[in-house]
Specification:
With about 450 residues, this protein is α/β, with parallel strands linked by helices. It folds into 3 domains: about 5-75, Beta Barrel (Elongation Factor Tu (Ef-tu), domain 3); about 80-350, Rossmann fold, CATH 3.40.50.12240; about 360-455, Bovine Mitochondrial F1-ATPase, ATP Synthase Beta Chain, Chain D, domain3 (Orthogonal Bundle). Helix content is about 35%, strand content about 25%. The protein is built from 13 helices and 21 strands. The strands form 5 sheets. Strands 9-16-15-17-19-14-20-21 form an 8-stranded mixed sheet, with helices on both faces. A 7-stranded antiparallel sheet has the order 1-7-4-5-6-3-2, with helices on one face. The protein has a two-stranded antiparallel ribbon with strand order 8-10. Helix 3 (about 185-200) links the parallel strand 15 and strand 16. The model has no long low-confidence stretch (mean pLDDT about 90).
Length: about 450
């Protein structure tokens, strides 16, 4: 292995060295400080005169004239094995749960590749999260990427844990890969305790990157998690749900390193390549034709100032297949999970619901609930202007429906898990608040079938 002494400049987590013909883009290098301490780095830029290395760790104690760089002629790889299930790792894939080292069956490049569109198989299979608002009105489908748009102080961490604990399919091996980026110690402890207490850790692989960990580690964490997911899905034939939280912390790290490199900023200071960078993560979800297994992604991001037009949710929305939006207004009303179904959607749900998948009445019921709640919100706004006493009898029924929909259907305890059958039946129950002539999206046969089941119950 070649070794070079001396660097041009050190700026935060970046080292600038003379561009050498032996250097490879993405190559992992060993960095030795004057006192012999060893660190890892990654070549992230090759110019005509200078190359840039990101350091996995702090650069304090490094001296430009006395720092040595050793080339590896290889990329950053992580050891994979089925034994990773039930384990907790740091952001770079090293065990932090006190268990034994993983005996790797093979080592895979964490950068991976987006799934070729030609080889993709269209997602058509239902994943049950146990949460009515998601399962009925914005169904998650195996192989989909469906983000959660949250805000500061909203319970997205609790929702992430609940989904990880409750998500299931019924016909195949199923695993959870959970990656947290830039989280505080108390939140990391909450994640660990929640997974251990609920037993979800038995089917999960957990990656934790803390807020005080090096910034570069934050950028490698989702890639380590997805590499493990790809091995379990396409190597072991498992169906894998990947939960990434919080992608806003990831993007902030991307912006910080872009600024250190002196790049021309884009919108709100984020690098112009953030779209393609996010796509390199999100597009690793999916199903591959003639291959067992699948990867479903639920990335979670907290929108700065609740701005859905902010670059992070905006670009995420372009790449993914819908969004689940949390509402601060519902949260203040004590509704958990505070999912606002009106701006939320799952673009692939129509392919994963209906007879033989969830239930025959699911598509029509979902449309009816959405239409009725949308009109009920409009009536609420009208009542705020003219007063409830000025409303017609039918409009007052819609106000009653809105309250019933939020408190009976949407409100669900953190420990409460509902099957898709239970969620659909609750949806029908809240619709009984409205007269039958207002139910334009469901058939009379479906209404009669509900009343037959309701009487038998």
């Amino acid at each position: 292995m070649l070794e070079y002494a001396g660097v041009k400049k050190i700026s935060g987590p970046l080292i600038f060295i003379e561009s050498l013909p032996e250097l490879l883009y993405g190559e992992v290098v060993e960095i030795f400080s004057p006192d012999g301490e060893e660190k890892l780095g990654k070549v992230i830029e090759l110019g005509d005169e200078l190359a840039v290395i990101q350091v996995f760790g702090e650069t304090g104690g490094l001296s430009p004239s006395r720092t040595r760089i050793r080339l590896s002629n290889d990329t950053f790889k992580i050891g994979v094995s089925r034994d990773v299930i039930g384990r907790i790792f740091n952001g770079m894939g090293r065990p932090i749960d006190g268990g034994p080292e993983i005996v790797a069956e093979e080592f895979l490049d964490v950068n991976g590749f987006a799934i070729n569109p030609v080889s993709r198989s269209y997602p058509r299979d239902f994943i049950q999260t146990g949460i009515s608002a998601i399962d009925v009105t914005m169904t998650v489908v195996r192989g989909q990427k469906l983000p959660i748009f949250s805000g500061s102080g909203l319970p997205h961490n609790e929702l992430a844990v609940q989904i990880a604990r409750q998500a299931k399919i019924y016909d195949r091996d199923f695993a959870i890969v959970f990656a947290a980026m830039g989280v505080k110690h108390d939140i990391a402890r909450y994640f660990i305790e929640s997974f251990e207490k609920s037993g979800a850790l038995r089917k999960s692989v957990v990656f934790l990157n803390l807020a005080n960990d090096p910034v570069i580690e934050r950028l490698i964490t989702p890639r380590c998690a997805l590499t493990i997911a790809e091995y379990l899905a396409f190597g072991m034939g498992m169906h894998v749900l990947v939960i990434l939280t919080d992608m806003t912390n990831y993007c902030e790290a991307l912006r910080e390193l872009s600024s250190r490199r002196g790049e021309i900023p884009g919108r709100k200071g984020y690098p112009g390549y953030m779209y393609s960078d996010l796509a390199s993560i999100y597009e690793r979800a999916g199903k591959i034709r003639d291959r067992d297994g699948s990867i479903t992604q639920i990335p979670i991001l907290s929108m700065p100032e609740d701005d859905i037009a902010h670059p992070i949710p905006d670009l995420t929305g372009y790449i993914t297949e819908g969004q689940i939006v949390l509402s601060r207004e519902l949260y203040r009303k004590g509704i958990y999970p505070p999912i606002n179904i009106l701006p939320s959607l799952s673009r692939l749900m129509k392919s994963g619901i209906g007879e033989g998948k969830t239930r025959k009445d699911h598509p029509h019921l979902s449309d009816q609930l959405y239409a009725a709640y949308s009109h009920a919100v409009w009536v609420r706004n009208l009542a705020a202007i003219v007063g409830e006493e000025e409303l017609s009898q039918k409009e007052r029924l819609y106000l009653k429906f809105a309250d019933s929909f939020e408190t009976r259907f949407m409100r669900q305890g953190f420990e409460e898990e509902r099957s898709i059958e239970e969620s659909l039946d609750i949806g029908w129950e809240v619709l009984t608040t409205l007269p039958e002539e207002e139910l334009h999206r469901v058939t009379m046969e479906e209404i009669e079938e509900f009343y037959r089941r309701f009487r038998r119950a």
